[in-house]
Amino acid sequence: MTATSLPTGDLRSALHGLPGVDKVGVEARASMLATRSIKTTAKAQAIDLAIRMVDLTTLEGADTPGKVRALSAKALRPDPADPSCPPVAAVCVYPSMVGVAAPVLAGSGVHLASVATAFPSGQAPLDVKLADTRDAVAAGADEIDMVISRGAFLSGRYDQVFEEITAVKEAAGAAHLKVILETGELGTYDNVRRASWLAMLAGADFIKTSTGKVPVAATLPVTLVMLEAVRDFRARTGRQVGVKPAGGIRTTKDAIKYLVLINETAGPDWLDPAWFRFGASSLLNDLLMQRTKLTTGHYSGPDYFTLD
């Protein structure tokens, strides 16, 4: 089933026909996987992989062109003292800042993502959301992070959410579309599974947990449900979709838990920045500090790396 092959009249029955989520089982499995340890050599590889998966993000009302340029430079060279340190996956900014970041990142291979569609509330008419998307792409964004209308989803207006995602996907053109579910507002794991499938059926390239602007952001159990969804979706349709947890992932220890979760749930095909991202800002500095510790045997102070 895809956006072009599923009649929207069948959407409700398709989503409510999904298997229910065993809340106790999901939370127990996530808790168990979080206890897995990684040895030193594997840890070094995991840290570099996690760095390569970071969408380095600034989404504040006080963002300035200078801050965005500095963040973009850091994305290219996270540790200026160590040229072996890999760049991050992407820089994520508001649409108004895309034109600032684009010249810094041009030709680097680091993607430029922009939140659009009336982020973070999603409370705007569709024509405004589409204009927001087109403007961000025109300014240089090659990834769009859109937020679904949670009010429409929670009131059962699945067709409306589906149609908005497909319209934004079309407006984004060649840019990859990450669909933010805002899982902290969905209430149940069953809703997370339904919203994941809805977004994928509508053409999402990635499904993303959160805006980072509500109290409950990414969690391991929610991400497990989403990883199961992308795994099952590929098995059913042949199309692979990425996953992006965002908000509240701050330490190397947190990141490694997610890498274990990916490997044990969706499988190693998702252990790649093309299919898994961390939406984060403070996470990168902790990864850099842990990387320095493994390389040199001692920690750098927290002020050794720039604060974002």
From TrEMBL:
InterPro entries, per database record: Aldolase_TIM (IPR013785), DeoC (IPR011343), DeoC/FbaB/LacD_aldolase (IPR002915)
Keywords assigned: Lyase, Schiff base
Pathway in which this enzyme or protein is active: Carbohydrate degradation; 2-deoxy-D-ribose 1-phosphate degradation; D-glyceraldehyde 3-phosphate and acetaldehyde from 2-deoxy-alpha-D-ribose 1-phosphate: step 2/2
A GO term for molecular function: deoxyribose-phosphate aldolase activity
EC number annotated for this UniProt entry: 4.1.2.4
One cellular-component annotation, GO: cytoplasm
Catalytic activity: 2-deoxy-D-ribose 5-phosphate = D-glyceraldehyde 3-phosphate + acetaldehyde
Similarity comment: family membership: Belongs to the DeoC/FbaB aldolase family. DeoC type 2 subfamily.
Protein name according to UniProt: Deoxyribose-phosphate aldolase
